[in-house]
């Protein structure tokens, strides 16, 4: 799996937007960009994914650079419950590996009241 | 109903013992996984099974033996436990190939402490 680079940690104020960056300069044409988050003492959970176009769902938005070498996860209004480690992962749909995901270090998001 | 459930949630044991962690998913998925999260919080894939057959084994020691009695269950048995086995073990499942979203569904984890 291609590698991703994320800041180790970020801070945000409650009810403000948060932009979590991810660099993936070696992304290939068959790589989807996935975001997961891990709340304290829980398993990771899916947040959003995309290929080329920006994506929105009830949890977040995903902005993908035109050259696909970076992406940004956007939480429109951070709450205390959004404090978690956020993982940016590349998933190669060209590989028949049963959807295995390789997690990096992620970004620990701290939300201040 | 919990989609992916693991038991036990906590396990404290002595070095040299043998222990098992059980995982069950009620999502009808074909593929199940075991991940290990160590003290530095890195999540690493250990095994992947599809329809009861092993498809990924990421150079895990032979002391770790996954067993899949049916596609809804993937249990992890660990022989001769070592201090370095202390970690949180996560079970996950997905449709084969990932389905529409490529989404993995994780359990809540089983924290193993080896003394």
Any overview of this molecule?
The complex is a heterodimer of chains A (113) and B (115). With 113 residues, chain A is mainly beta. Chain A is 0% helix and 46% strand. Chain A is globular and about 40 Å long. Chain A starts with 8 loop residues before the first strand and ends with a strand. In chain B, the strands form two sheets. In chain B, strands 2, 4, 5, 6, 9, 10 and 11 form a seven-stranded mixed beta sheet that branches. Chain B has a four-stranded antiparallel beta sheet with strand order 1-3-8-7, with no helix packed on it. The interface between A and B is medium-sized, with 25 and 30 residues.
List the helices and strands and how they pair.
The complex is a heterodimer of chains A (113) and B (115).
Chain A: E1 9-13, E2 18-23, E3 31-38, E4 45-50, E5 55-56, E6 61-64, E7 70-75, E8 84-92, E9 107-112
Parallel strand pairs in A: 1-9
Antiparallel strand pairs in A: 2-7, 3-4, 3-8, 5-6, 6-7, 8-9
Chain B: E1 4-7, E2 10-13, E3 19-25, E4 31-37, E5 43-50, E6 53-57, E7 64-67, E8 75-78, E9 87-94, E10 105-106, E11 110-114
